[in-house]
TrEMBL record:
<protein>
    <submittedName>
        <fullName>Ribose transport system substrate-binding protein</fullName>
    </submittedName>
</protein>
<dbReference type="GO" id="GO:0030246">
    <property type="term" value="F:carbohydrate binding"/>
</dbReference>
<feature type="signal peptide">
    <location>
        <begin position="1"/>
        <end position="21"/>
    </location>
</feature>
<keyword id="KW-0732">Signal</keyword>
<dbReference type="InterPro" id="IPR025997">
    <property type="entry name" value="SBP_2_dom"/>
</dbReference>
<feature type="compositionally biased region" description="Polar residues">
    <location>
        <begin position="31"/>
        <end position="54"/>
    </location>
</feature>
<feature type="region of interest" description="Disordered">
    <location>
        <begin position="31"/>
        <end position="59"/>
    </location>
</feature>
<dbReference type="Pfam" id="PF13407">
    <property type="entry name" value="Peripla_BP_4"/>
</dbReference>
<feature type="domain" description="Periplasmic binding protein">
    <location>
        <begin position="62"/>
        <end position="319"/>
    </location>
</feature>
<comment type="similarity">
    <text>Belongs to the bacterial solute-binding protein 2 family.</text>
</comment>
<dbReference type="InterPro" id="IPR028082">
    <property type="entry name" value="Peripla_BP_I"/>
</dbReference>
<dbReference type="GO" id="GO:0030313">
    <property type="term" value="C:cell envelope"/>
</dbReference>
Length: 355
């Protein structure tokens, strides 16, 4: 895969490197009471918790419902949430079976309400379809943490944690502009985009961010195709793109899971004249970066539900956050969308999910 000369480094995008702070926002929490001092003996010589909120408190029951793990990123969302709960002895996590059926997920939330859980973390199959039942939970006094796919009412969640889809496009487009500048590609640079499912707002947001960022350096998306977030569709549309366009300078693929098929199409066509940028931050994409087979990927954090578990624990225990002057848990958190390239891939590899 073509490599950059005079690499567009992290200066290209000031966002890069902030994700760790954003992802760990919930982790750096503290209770509203002073921390105990001089208790090293009570900890048997071990280091104190990062904050008093990390110390065990009253046990809280958290219900978690996510979609079926039929995609590498979704599988990582679910597993990260469960792994995060296991870190806390004061969390009793009840996990509903993953599903892509909104009616079944509604049934799961009804069960959580009937059981009287202390908080619910919910990545809805369909935000609009789950809004009513989430509102019922809130009205029952159960704080709901909405993850990734937003409800259609502000009353349906106490806190919403989102990835930044528009920001992904901005990061990809800004990085592409850096490549154009550093490699003297000029205004004639041929830029292609392999999107996900076009009907989804997240795809539309990613494409709009990419277009807007490219405009800053006078570039355009010359060729755009859309896949379906699957390996098979990625390979098919990438093959068609390569057959239609004889030479490309930069390709941005929205999703690293479908990127397996996209990469296969590149290899089958023996095409490597372009800079290949991915999206989401899979482990295999990061390994391709290490091997020089891919230029970069744009992170869409698979930690969103794990962060949701942490925030749900704080909400259920009536705790707040010390990283803000206003110490209550925020109503809305948008995680960063940094560029991962050869300069920082070692830092982000632990966050990579297996496709």
């Amino acid at each position: 895969m073509r490599r950059i000369t005079g690499r567009a480094s992290l200066r290209v995008l000031t966002r890069v490197g902030v994700a760790v702070a954003a992802v760990s926002l919930a982790a750096a929490c503290t209770s509203n009471t002073p921390e105990n001092e001089g208790n090293d003996s009570e900890n048997n010589g071990q280091a104190n918790a990062a904050s008093s909120n990390d110390d065990p408190g009253e046990t809280v029951v958290i219900g978690f419902s996510g979609p079926e793990a039929d995609h590498g990123w979704l599988a990582a969302i679910n597993s990260a949430a469960e792994a995060e709960a296991e870190k806390y002895s004061d969390i009793d996590l009840r996990v509903a079976e993953g599903t892509n059926d909104p009616s079944q997920q509604i049934s799961h939330i009804e069960t959580f309400i009937n059981e009287g859980v202390d908080a619910i973390v919910l990545l809805p199959t369909d935000g609009a379809a789950l809004t009513e039942i989430a509102t019922e939970a809130m009205e029952a006094g159960i704080p709901v943490v909405n993850v990734d796919r937003e409800f259609s009412s502000e009353f349906a969640a106490r806190t919403t944690i989102l990835g930044d889809n528009y920001g992904m496009g901005v990061s990809a487009g800004t990085y592409a502009c850096g490549l154009i500048e550093e490699n003297n590609l000029g205004s004639d640079a041929v830029v292609a985009e392999i999107a996900g499912i076009d009907s989804l707002p997240l795809t539309q947001d990613r494409s709009q961010g990419f277009k807007d960022a490219l405009a800053a350096c006078g570039a355009d998306v010359d060729h755009r195709v859309a896949a379906e977030f699957t390996v098979e569709s990625g390979e098919a549309v990438a093959s068609n793109l390569l057959q239609a366009v004889r030479e490309i300078d930069i390709i941005w693929n929205h999703d690293d899971d479908q990127g397996i098929g996209v990469k296969a199409a590149f290899d089958n066509a023996n095409r490597d004249e372009f800079f290949f940028i991915g999206g989401a931050g899979s482990a295999n994409a990061m390994r391709w970066i290490q091997e020089g087979e891919m230029e970069a990927t744009i992170l869409y954090p698979p930690t969103q539900a794990a962060d949701g578990i942490r925030l749900a624990r704080l909400l259920a225990q009536d705790k707040g956050m010390s990283d803000l002057v206003q110490v209550e848990v925020p109503r809305r958190i948008v995680l960063n969308a940094p560029v991962v390239n050869a300069d920082n891939v070692e830092e982000y590899l632990p966050l990579g999910f297996e496709s």
